[in-house]
């Protein structure tokens, strides 16, 4: 026989809501852990008095009763698991797991039985329904009638708010059956009534959630928050956890009370009660009980007269009454020495506290995330600056929390903490032993290498280069004026033998040469820029000689029938025509469509045949084109040098022949207006001839004449 049994996806019925979780049965007892809140219910084996197996809405359920009257219900079992559970109960708990079905007759009269925390409405021996009396918020009586009101369930879409029981009068003297019914309900109901005096009162405490100043009255079973506008009564049974957290400034303390179910104000739900205290504030407290009662009730955890810091007194009293441990920050210490990290969640700034078993963020909105519900964490780059990073947490339910604007110096400490707690880190890398990609980012020293900073610098350099390129393209030539070593052969220095005798020798030619040089420089720089840029893929255009794709049967029919449709419907628009054609085609018989299908099939065959011929011819032509290109390139390389010598000799001879003319002679000639124009035309024609000689390979005669010159 197995020592333990474990069941996943089991639902516990608590106050009308079904809480998902895991159930574990062991020799010592039964443990249920709520997946949503992490709350653990532990039932000792010696406390169990009865176990009932029955069919419910979610398959089969288990109902357990304890010696102190508590009832626990767990649903979601399969029918086949009954034998396994029955044997386990017999072996380890010495209990017979009884099968008892609910009555489904639909009658509305029967008998009411009060057993422990349950009100059971039975017909015969079978229960019809059961009401946990802890769900009852109010019980009122009338003539032969009792009305039960219930707490609203926030998790359920529809909540049962009221049930009325008709109690027939009896002949017994001295006993009112209606009052007896009501007293049985009230003795077990969760009805908050401020009877008697408070144990102690804390006045004008600063509360962050809900915001305001509140007087806190401590009663034996509940906590009463009394403010100027609102009052809240919080039963101690709804308190889930207590946290005592030091503020980053080391002068204040947060006291956080986690609630389930939350307190409500209109449509707002407060899952956390957050109090803020100053460390310097002291108080002397006297409990409204005698010393014997204090000793009997609290067993030395509290004394009648106490004094100390205000936050210590509040936390000590709450711990004794709620009977839960107070969670404080563990070994984590941030870069500044504080036990928390400043960050932002959603739109508000707050503090994130790494705890021994989870994270808590205060204060707006408060968030508590347990380690066992975390799927993975992620260290992400800050969106606005490299001086900060984001810390992301994703739970197993798929909820994501992003804590942003965390200082870069906190990275190392936070990463070490997450690593020590063995949480899954999304961007760690493939191997467990490898250093994470953000290790270098964690260093707080400015001299250390920062991967993100280096990347930002590279992006800045690229942006600067792009800006320079755009300024070059816009026509500014200041950056192109000097390129040593590139144009030494083209530029004639004044001490060179090729230089003109005087600066006024031929200004028109020098201007044109200058323009040509600049154009060459621009072309060269454009080539360099193109080589730097990534190659852009260009879509190949369609070959006009390629055969056209065949039309479908519908398109062939439409082309043939378009004119007929137009004549039948004069003035019809193009869109209406296509709609009408679609309707006609839809209603056409199968035999008529087959005729057009055959035509479409013939057209498809012709297309395939034409494509084969086209592809075969294209392959041969591409081979011929490649061989031609190779030949052309060879010719250009061989003949490039000959025309350049001829053209350079011509230009030098022209410069020498015209160098004796002075600037004054050209400008002072009155009849030079017409002659100058004709000279310019002649020069242009000569230049064009030179360009043609340079660009086209010369014939054998031209090369011979060039050598003669």
From TrEMBL:
One of its GO terms (cellular component) is nucleolus. It comes from the Eukaryota. InterPro entries: HMG_box_dom, HMG_box_dom_sf, PH-like_dom_sf, RTT106/SPT16-like_middle_dom, RTT106/SSRP1_HistChap/FACT, SSRP1-like_PH1, SSRP1/POB3, SSRP1/POB3_N. Residues 534-546, 577-624 have a biased composition (Basic and acidic residues). Residues 547-615 bind DNA. Residues 470-496 have a biased composition (Acidic residues). PANTHER family: FACT COMPLEX SUBUNIT SSRP1. Residues 515-533, 625-634 have a biased composition (Basic residues). Component of the FACT complex, a general chromatin factor that acts to reorganize nucleosomes. The FACT complex is involved in multiple processes that require DNA as a template such as mRNA elongation, DNA replication and DNA repair. During transcription elongation the FACT complex acts as a histone chaperone that both destabilizes and restores nucleosomal structure. This is FACT complex subunit SSRP1. Interacts with MYOG (via C-terminal region). Component of the FACT complex, a stable heterodimer of SSRP1 and SUPT16H. Also a component of a CK2-SPT16-SSRP1 complex which forms following UV irradiation, composed of SSRP1, SUPT16H, CSNK2A1, CSNK2A2 and CSNK2B. Binds to histone H3-H4 tetramers, but not to intact nucleosomes. Identified in a centromere complex containing histones H2A, H2B and H4, and at least CENPA, CENPB, CENPC, CENPT, CENPN, HJURP, SUPT16H, SSRP1 and RSF1. Interacts with isoform gamma of TP63. Interacts with FYTTD1/UIF. Interacts with SRF. Interacts with NEK9. GO terms for molecular function: DNA binding; histone binding; nucleosome binding.
């Amino acid at each position: 026989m197995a020592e333990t049994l474990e069941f996943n996806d089991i639902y516990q019925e608590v106050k009308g809501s079904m809480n998902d979780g895991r159930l574990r049965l062991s020799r010592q007892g039964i443990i249920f852990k709520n997946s949503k809140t992490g709350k653990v219910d532990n039932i000792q084996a010696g406390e169990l008095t009865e176990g009932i197996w029955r069919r419910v809405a979610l398959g089969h359920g288990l109902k357990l009763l304890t010696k102190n009257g508590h009832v626990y219900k767990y649903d979601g079992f399969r029918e086949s698991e009954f034998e396994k559970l029955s044997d386990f109960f017999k072996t380890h708990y010495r209990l017979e797991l009884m099968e008892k079905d609910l009555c489904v007759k639909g009658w509305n009269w029967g008998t009411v039985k009060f057993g422990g925390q349950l009100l059971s409405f039975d017909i015969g021996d079978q229960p019809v329904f059961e009401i946990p009396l802890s769900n009852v918020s109010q019980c009122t009586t009338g003539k032969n009638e009792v009305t039960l009101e219930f707490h609203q369930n926030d998790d359920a879409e529809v909540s049962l708010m009221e049930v009325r029981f008709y109690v027939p009068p009896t002949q017994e003297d001295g006993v009112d059956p209606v009052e007896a019914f009501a007293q049985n309900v009230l003795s077990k109901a969760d009805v908050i009534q401020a009877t008697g005096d408070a144990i102690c009162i804390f006045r004008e405490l600063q509360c962050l959630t809900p915001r305001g100043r509140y007087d806190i009255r401590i009663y034996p079973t509940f906590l009463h928050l009394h403010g100027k506008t609102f009052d809240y009564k919080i039963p101690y049974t709804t308190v889930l956890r207590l946290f005592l957290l030091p503020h980053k400034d080391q002068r204040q303390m947060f006291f956080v009370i986690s609630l389930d179910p939350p307190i409500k104000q209109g449509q707002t739900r407060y899952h956390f009660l957050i109090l803020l205290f100053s460390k310097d504030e002291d108080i002397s407290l006297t409990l409204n009980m005698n010393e014997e009662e204090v000793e009997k009730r609290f067993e030395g955890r509290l004394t009648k007269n106490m004094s100390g810091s205000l936050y210590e007194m509040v936390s000590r009293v709450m711990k004794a009454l709620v009977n839960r441990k107070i969670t404080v920050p563990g070994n984590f210490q941030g870069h500044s020495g504080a036990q928390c990290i400043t960050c932002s969640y959603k739109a508000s700034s707050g503090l994130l506290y790494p705890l021994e078993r989870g994270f808590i963020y205060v204060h707006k909105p408060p968030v508590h995330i347990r380690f066992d519900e975390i799927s993975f964490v992620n260290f992400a780059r800050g969106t606005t600056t490299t001086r900060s990073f984001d810390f992301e947490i994703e739970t197993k339910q798929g909820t994501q929390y992003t804590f942003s604007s965390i200082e870069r110096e906190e990275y190392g400490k936070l990463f070490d903490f997450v690593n020590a707690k063995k949480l899954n880190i999304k961007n760690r890398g493939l191997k467990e032993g490898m250093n994470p990609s953000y290790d270098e980012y964690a260093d707080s020293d400015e001299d250390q290498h920062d991967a993100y900073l280096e990347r930002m610098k590279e992006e800045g350099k690229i942006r600067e280069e792009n800006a320079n390129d755009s300024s070059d393209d816009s026509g500014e030539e200041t950056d192109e004026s000097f390129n040593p070593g590139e144009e030494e052969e083209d530029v004639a220095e004044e001490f060179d033998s090729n230089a003109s005798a005087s600066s006024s020798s031929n200004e028109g030619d020098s201007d044109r040469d200058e323009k040509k040089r600049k154009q060459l420089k621009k072309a060269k720089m454009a080539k360099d820029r193109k080589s730097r840029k990534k190659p852009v893929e260009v879509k190949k255009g369609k070959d006009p000689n390629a055969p056209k794709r065949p039309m479908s049967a519908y398109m062939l029919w439409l082309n043939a029938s378009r004119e007929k449709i137009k004549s039948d419907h004069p003035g019809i628009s193009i869109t209406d025509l296509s709609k009408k054609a679609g309707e006609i085609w839809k209603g056409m018989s199968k035999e008529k469509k087959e005729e057009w299908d055959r035509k479409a099939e013939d057209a498809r065959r012709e297309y395939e045949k034409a494509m084969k011929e086209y592809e075969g011819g294209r392959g041969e032509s591409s081979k011929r084109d490649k061989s031609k290109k190779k030949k052309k390139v060879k010719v250009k390389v061989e003949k490039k040098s000959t025309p350049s010598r001829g053209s350079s000799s011509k230009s030098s001879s022209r410069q020498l022949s015209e160098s004796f003319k002075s600037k004054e002679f050209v400008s002072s000639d009155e009849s030079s207006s017409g002659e100058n124009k004709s000279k310019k035309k002649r020069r242009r024609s000569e230049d064009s001839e030179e360009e043609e000689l340079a660009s086209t390979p010369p014939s054998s005669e031209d090369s011979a004449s060039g050598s003669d010159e």
